[in-house]
Structure prediction request, 420 residues.
Amino acid sequence: MDKRIETIIDRLQRNGSIFDSKDLKTIREELERELKKDLGIKESLKKLTAELEEYSSHFIYTANQVISGLSSCIYLPNLNGSYSITIFGGTTDYNKATKINEKTVFDLASITKLYTYILTLFLMEKRYFKKEDKIKDLDSRFEGLGDYTVEDILKMSGKILTNEKITASEDKEEALKILETIYVADSDFSYNNYTDLGFIVLSKVIEKIVSKQSGKVLSFDEIMNEYLLVPWGLEETMFHPDKAKYNIAGNGNNEGFVHDPKARLLGGAVGSAGLFASSEAIRKLADNLFKVENVNYTKLAGTIIYPNAKQNQKGYAGIYQKHPQGLDKTFVPSEYATGSFAHQGFTGSVAVFDPTNRIHNHILVNSIKNGEPKKPDGFIGALTIYQTMLTKITLKAYLLNRYYEMIQKNESVEIKRSIK
Prediction:
């Protein structure tokens, strides 16, 4: 086999990539056959596209009806061009009403927290507030949080609760009153407790602080749009998608409302959930995250792992990290570099970022049936199988990409394929 592929694999392993020896042997054998044909990167990627299309079709149509449709992408940007494969298909809901296309927007659910985290980093850099600031000092409505800080919210430190569940409220006003009862139930900050509450509070604090300093009343969705979505060119990322303008993947309802009941009660745009995005928009997010001047991604990738947490692979904002021992209790594939991270939403979607190797892929899905409170049984198992296949195909694409780059045959390739 070409020694250049071995060199690339050695470099991946030095970056912290961990490979299953059997899988790696299979991938090497497949690449050896491809390289002997010398078809070039474009033709090679077309073959990988066909392979991904087959797995995507299986996921949609034969995986026990756990999703109605998807838009899945492999994206490999580098200094000499970019390589991407996007597969989309199925329908926006289980009633087979509307076919998913490349512009379909999906309910990101908790992946919204990743955007809120990035927005918070921006605002701290602009000196709107500091990570050490106490929430109660920034917004007196949350007096019950005591010494709890902005950074404590970002880390999801300890345990915070409200006197009643927000979902017990009848309307937005009552939901806000319940939110204002928030307090620290456990101040042992040596562990984290994954929750939406802190990021909902954070979005309300951001509304108050930014509105005060800008001299005009701004809602959280307006702030997100002005400070992050527009500057990054994320036009197909939004709260409150317009049904007349966007093809919206259902998420348990036919109206395009955010599925998360807390976010819906509080108006649909909070820091924990509510964003919708297309596959192209997530790809643009990856482009921006891979630019050091936009975000110091060591703040994202180098986050704290809590040894005492039930989900000890999570750090700031519930961002999944690659486990240091290569364990599988995370949505970050072990084949990616140390420092890779991911986020996953309740509605089923997953987005993965490897800043070191500049690898990105995502799986946007509609998994929740109309009127149902959660995903179907069997979804996680089917998703895990699909992500495993997606990772293998991504690795093949990456190795081919780097190989052709090394022999100075560079061209940007973008492939989009609709599943029939």
Remarks:
- Residues 1-104+278-420 form one domain.
